[in-house]
Design a protein that fits this description.
Length: about 400
């Protein structure tokens, strides 16, 4: 295969992609453009721009995608109540399809025939980036340095960085930091002591939440308003998607909400221990399910719950741009037309409790549900026939299905 004419690198400003920027220049002797998507990772965005320029990038592109990220990727995912393996709210996974899209578009803009990323050959992100890029531009060339170079350890990378005067961020103790990925939805932490599943994470690792022991002694009560399955206001204040999630992160993080420590199954079959910090998303998930409980028909709600693990796996494994995800999204979005109203939640020392919900589209009928007089709208004698019809197959079968 001929050498690339020029390359667009997904650049975070961290150690790995900084080394990759220099390595691509040395290896392929062509222009390497740095692309950084601002999806809420914080002040490191501007630092990444300056670092890429200092490392000799042909040009640096930084795009503010915070609103698009939350509106077009995070919120559609939350309409599905997507959770991977019971705990992971997919904060890293959902960012990759947008970055892949922008990488391909930037390559077209500068006339590059190749894109590159810093995901390792053991992880999920290589799959997510590359499936997304191929789905959007089937003939794109992709370079994954971790699958090509001979630097196979963190120490080898540190030695390369020192040889090329690439700045290395270190923690207060002088060690290289955890491998982290941040956006408006979450922060993930991997590596270091976390590679021992028995070792507890250092409290100083967490960036967006306090420990439960340090949370306020008094609970906070908030209200989230939904329209079409999406949150539109917090405590009566209408906010844009990104602004709402940012504010929810701050409120929830102050009450120690959103930390998980899990061992998950990567798509390649490797078990991986990671810690995730998703304050606003944790509250949002609880609230969305609460408003759905009022407004969704039983069978529609149960069908959504049956489809959710499949939808979550599609996102986790990198199939956001697939036909099957688009089809599932249409069904999910159709289910959300009546999902509107307000949910009241209490936040206290790491816990989120729903303490009220109301909706103009509520299917809850107080008279029928009440233990008091229902005005004759429900004849309890009808339940006998319902039970006997559902028990018919047991009675026909003759019983005998008790403990053996």
């Amino acid at each position: 295969m001929s050498d690339p004419s020029s390359i667009v690198l997904a650049y975070s400003g961290g150690l790995d992609t900084s080394i990759i920027l220099k390595w691509l220049q040395e290896t392929y002797r062509c222009k390497v453009y740095a692309y950084t998507a601002d999806i809420g990772q914080g002040g490191e965005v501007e630092a990444a721009r300056q670092k890429a320029r200092a490392l000799g990038a042909a040009d640096v592109f930084v795009e503010d995608l915070r609103e698009e990220f939350v509106r077009d990727f995070v919120f559609p995912m939350f309409r599905a109540n997507a959770i991977y393996e019971g705990e992971y709210l997919l904060g890293t996974s959902i960012a990759r399809p947008l970055i892949a899209q922008r990488l391909v578009e930037t390559a077209a803009r500068v006339g590059a025939d190749t894109v590159a990323h810093g995901a390792t050959g053991k992880g999920n992100d290589q799959v997510r980036f590359e499936l997304g890029a191929y789905a959007l531009k089937p003939d794109i060339r992709i370079i994954s340095p971790w699958r090509e170079w001979d630097m196979d350890s963190r120490s080898a990378l540190l030695a390369y960085a020192e040889r090329h005067a690439i700045g290395i961020e270190r923690d207060a103790g002088g060690a290289a930091p955890y491998s982290m990925d941040a956006n408006l939805l979450h922060i993930s932490y991997e590596g270091g002591v976390l590679e021992d599943p028995w070792a507890p994470p250092d409290e100083a690792m967490w960036r967006r939440s306090v420990a439960p022991e340090a949370a306020p002694a008094a609970a906070a009560t908030i209200e989230l308003e939904f329209r079409g399955g999406d949150p539109v206001a917090l405590d009566g204040e209408a906010l844009s998607p990104a602004a709402l999630l940012q504010k929810l992160n701050e409120v929830a993080g102050a009450h120690a909400i959103g930390r998980v420590d899990i061992v998950e199954n990567r798509y390649l079959g490797i078990k991986s221990r990671g810690c995730y910090e998703t304050p606003g998303g944790t509250v949002l998930m609880k609230a969305h399910r609460a408003i759905e409980s009022l407004t969704l028909d039983r069978e529609a709600a149960h069908l959504k719950d049956e489809l959710m693990p499949r939808y979550a796996e599609l996102i986790y494994n990198g199939y956001w741009w697939s036909d099957e995800r688009h089809l599932l999204q249409k069904l999910i979005d159709e289910s959300q037309r009546r999902v509107a109203g307000v949910v009241r939640l209490k936040l206290y020392k790491g816990g989120v409790a729903v303490v009220g919900r109301r909706s103009p589209n509520s299917l809850f009928d107080r008279e029928i549900a009440s233990f008091e007089e229902d005005g004759g709208r429900f004849d309890q004698r009808d339940a006998e026939g319902f039970i006997k019809l559902n028990a018919l197959r047991f009675r026909v079968g003759g019983g005998g299905r008790g403990p053996s």
